[in-house]
Amino acid sequence: MSILIYAESAEGKFKKVAFELASYAKAVAQSLGTTVTAVTVNAGNVSELSKYGVDKVLKINNDKLAGFTAKAYADAIKQAAQKENVKLVLLSSTTDSLYLAPLVAVGLEAGFASNVVGLPVSTSPFQVKRNAFSNKAFNITEISTDVKVLSLGKNSYGVFENASSLTEEDFAPSISDADFGVKVQSVEKSSGKVTIADADIVVSAGRGMKGPENWGIIEEMASVLGAATACSKPVSDLDWRPHGEHVGQTGKPVAANLYIAVGISGAIQHIAGINSSKVKLVINSDPEAPFFKVADYGVVGDLFEIVPKLTEKLKAFKAQNS
């Protein structure tokens, strides 16, 4: 009885979440005395997965799956799970996997728990800890079905090397035309930047920036930190920044190790969407801004003075420690 993970990739390269999921699966597998199998779709070199504990890879290479289609991908993962007779299927919490997990669970007649934030509390009965109420609380969920599906919250476990001997196997699931009722017309991707989904650090800014022409200081700080850039909803609504950078409850959820909020007052919807971030630094000229109530660190002052000075300090620190 193996554990199955869906190891996400983009343009042939594995995403960071694939390694976190593999690390998590390996820890669970060791507690259960079993192995970890990964299913990949049009990935390149899969041997990298062995660093994080994957014992076997089912490699799907199919031109029909070049563009993400939830139903087709879910059907392929379901067939991989049935082939390996797995009892536990693990997915991440990326946008694609959030679509996939419920479909996989239905296909396998499995119980499903999302936003899992730690190793199983118990394996008999099977219980996991989850984020609830927009990350304001935790709950313990028990799954009693024979097959179980979990989605792991972003940055909730970490990436740990745990090398294993890897077996690779080509796998050709049966994909029908009915799986492609929804067709991808086009995909717009940012290039040359750290994506919000993969970022350990996110530098986000709001209306306090006063206009899109001032965003250079945010991009410079993000570049020094190796961070992704993001923005609040009003900023994307004003077309100051791309809608793909909008984070919060109504945008992309963020669970970064460090979230820096610059000139963002902290509407409840924004805070709910980034509250899973481990450390939150807020820079705002208004000492009464709601964001300070949930911040780990706060700086009150003019962002146009603080951000450039902070960036220079970061550059100096990197130069001394490189």
CATH class of the largest domain: Alpha Beta
CATH architecture type of the largest domain? 3-Layer(aba) Sandwich
Number of strands: 17
Q: What is the fold named in CATH at topology level of the largest domain?
A: Rossmann fold
Globular, elongated, flat, extended or rod-shaped: what is the shape?
globular
Helical content band: 25-40%
In sequence order, what are the helices and strands, one letter per element? EEEHEEHEHEEEEEEEHEHEHEEH
Strand arrangement, largest sheet? 7-11-6-1-4-5-12
Task: Please give a structural write-up.
It contains seven helices and 17 strands. It is an alpha/beta fold and 322 residues long. It folds into two domains: 3-180, HUPs (Rossmann fold), CATH 3.40.50; 201-321, 3-Layer(aba) Sandwich (Rossmann fold), CATH 3.40.50.1220. A seven-stranded parallel beta sheet has the order 7-11-6-1-4-5-12. A five-stranded parallel beta sheet has the order 14-13-15-16-17. The N and C termini lie far apart (46 Å). The model has no long low-confidence stretch (mean pLDDT 92).
